[in-house]
Amino acid sequence: MAVISHLRTLRQAAWLGWQMESNWTRPWLFIIYSIVRPIAATLILVVMFLVIKQGVANDPLMFTYTYVGAVFFMFVAQVLLGATYVIMEDREHYQTLRQIYIAPISLHVYIIGRSLSKVLLTSLSAIISMAFGLLVLRLPIDLLRVDWPLFALSMLIGLGCILSIGIALAGITFLTAKHSTGINEGIGGVFYLFCGTLFPLTVLPPWGQSIGMAIPITYWLELVRRSLYPAGGIETISGLGEFSNPAILLLLAASALVFLGLSLLIFWFADRMARRAGKVDMTTTY
Amino acid sequence: MPPAVEVTALSRVFVGKSPVVALDNIDLNVEEGELFGLLGPNGAGKTTLIKILSTLLLPSKGSARVLGYDVAKETSKIRPLINMVSGGEISGYGLLTVRENLWMFSQFYGIPGKVANERIDALLHAFGLEDKADVKVRTISTGQRQRMNIIRGFVTDPRLIFLDEPTLGLDVQTSRAIRDYIRTWVRSQVGRTLLLTTHYMREAEELCDRVAIIDRGTILACDSPEGLKKRMNRASTFVLDTTHFDSSVISTIAGVKGVSAEAMREGLRIKLVVENESAISDIISSVGAGGGKVLGLNKSEPTLEDVFIKLVGRGLE
Known about the structure:
By secondary structure, chain A is mainly alpha-helical. Chain A is built from eleven helices and no strands. Chain A has one domain (2-277). The longest helix of chain A has 34 residues, at 60-93. Chain B has two domains: 5-229, P-loop containing nucleotide triphosphate hydrolases (Rossmann fold, 3-Layer(aba) Sandwich), CATH 3.40.50; 233-301, Alpha-Beta Plaits, CATH 3.30.70.920. Chain B is 32% helix and 29% strand. Chain B has helices spanning 46-53, 75-78, 98-108, 113-126, 142-155, 172-187, 201-207, 225-230, 279-289, 304-312; strands spanning 5-14, 20-30, 35-39, 61-66, 69-70, 82-86, 160-164, 193-198, 210-215, 218-223, 236-242, 256-263, 268-274, 294-300. In chain B, the strands form three sheets. In chain B, strands 6-7-8-3-9-10 form a six-stranded mixed β-sheet, with helices on both faces. Chain B has a four-stranded antiparallel β-sheet with strand order 2-1-4-5. The longest helix of chain B is centred in the middle third of the chain and has 16 residues, at 172-187.
């Protein structure tokens, strides 16, 4: 019964999330926006990188490393933003949070469901950006040689982990008003800096590398890169070259499990605090 | 069969720079099948109590049980059985239609699709919103949004529903339709319970089997409307019409238990609850002394409002 209830909640929440993502404008404008935005966002970073480190374009491996990192980090930024905005929007804009809160549903499932539209749109963005990278920027990725099973598995675990972190941030949003966006962007920034998104872990000081090694997103990005470019060589850039693919997968799964546990704990604690302080249905106008 | 609501020594304090005691050691029982009213002015603690009972807020002290379950520890058992609607509630997903909003909430409560659709249609009809069913919520009026939210509360067919000031800000006709529906809903099936908060005396008197009068976080009395009126026993109620003057002096006269003054076009309409009718001569003298003039004086049958004035010492507004 619980599974059926969760699936029903997931479906309804995902549908609601999709309505919110796609219904704000006319379909043609939405499609243009969905195509242009990810390309623009990725290109900003790539162009900045090219300008700063002239000549990197002649190093296709390094360019691929940067480009893939920038594209796939969109999942982290968008899903974390989406999860925190579930609480913000329901509480402040639609004022439905109290109704959702007292409904006999799992809030975790509801938040995941609402965030799925972000996953879907970001997937579309990632596909468009990768296609642009392959066709226009000539990334040396051969689609016939991509390790698809490894890619699928790493995406599954990676997205699950990002969603679980999103749940923790959504929980914290129960307690915050104007700082919610800051927390969400701050956490995203930490991941951006320490997880080898644009540059290898090896450029960080030892303590920075230790932080990076404790975050599952580091392993997820590494596996995504390795699965897209299985010819070999890209693993030598990141600083994780000594680990085999199964070892990285194991590290990803283990660290994701730890993050899942922490996220559930943070959410439980924040939920309890919000209920104790009477903040569940506060309207702050932020 | 446990009571629908069982509250024991319940307190709620909102901590901060200056802590606010919203509920102060209250006890309350609501039986299953009752239409129960919480009557009190703004800030009396009504909404805080409803929030605790509907699992939105934790109590500071004491215990509260809903349909036999503890509100602090057994929320997952309570939530499928209850629902709550707040008056003046204009919430809703504006980009969905009225029907889509209602459908989504029915699904969160696991109502089978066919049943949900039938209920939504019946409720839209009962609340006069059929023609807005397929209209986006962002385009309907505030009153229509309020009606949609009341439908949302009933569409899940809860065993216990909390209505917090359900007719707040609504026009007379809509308020009457809501009161009629509330009465019919509770009586149409055994075991349905409704806990209503209001600061409209007539609403409480007209609808409720029992009423608890609450002020400053304390329950002052709890009985049927008739039982509460009987508590007036030796007290008498009068309506005194005067020209404008400072009426605050009346409450200091010996024998006066409560005063509620309402400004009218010509002057003041003062409701008086006096323990001893001999106080009336002193009251009339005080009107003259204060520069006012008595326009009329009538003895009246006690109403719930008089009970409130006697218990609290002032009117509700």
